[in-house]
Amino acid sequence: MKIPKVTLDQWRALQAVVDYGGFAQAAEKLHRSQSSVSYSVNRLQELLGVRLLYMEGRKAVLSDAGKILLQRSRQLVTDASAIEQQAHYLQQGWEAEIRLGVEAAFPAGILMEALKQFELIGKDTRINLQEFVLSGAEDVLHNDQADLIISSYVPQGFLGEEILRVDFIAVAHPDHPLHQLGRSLSIDDLNRETHVVVRDSGHKGIDSGWISDSKRWAVASLASSCKIISNGLGFGWLPEQEIKMLMDNGQLKPLPLKEGAINTGTLYLLFGNDQVGPATRQLADILKRLCAA
Question: 10 Å Cβ neighbour count for 34?
Answer without folding.
Answer: 15
